[in-house]
Design brief:
about 80 residues; Nuclear Transport Factor 2, Chain: A; 3 strands; about 35% helix; signal; Peptidase; PepSY
Length: about 80
């Protein structure tokens, strides 16, 4: 009984440590990058920066420059 309870607790804890890709969605990351640059979003993909999950958002700025904005998945901060 104790082993079963321990395994159940471990499974519940493991479920809470899952990757945080859903904290900031792909669409939310695109909107964040668009607001930060005033440009048009060309592509959004999953990536890592400094060991942390980020969205890599490629944006065409109003001046015609292509920029890559990294949006932290957990905080939504644009880099």
């Amino acid at each position: 009984m104790n082993l079963l309870r321990t395994l159940l607790c471990a499974a519940l804890l493991a479920a809470n440590v899952a990757p945080a890709w859903a904290a900031v969605s792909r669409d939310a990351a695109a909107a964040i990058a668009q607001r930060a640059t005033g440009g048009r979003v060309l592509a959004v993909e999953q990536a890592e920066s400094g060991g942390r999950p980020v969205w890599r958002v490629k944006v065409l700025t109003p001046s015609g420059e292509v920029r890559v904005i990294l949006v932290d998945v957990a905080s939504g901060q644009a880099q």
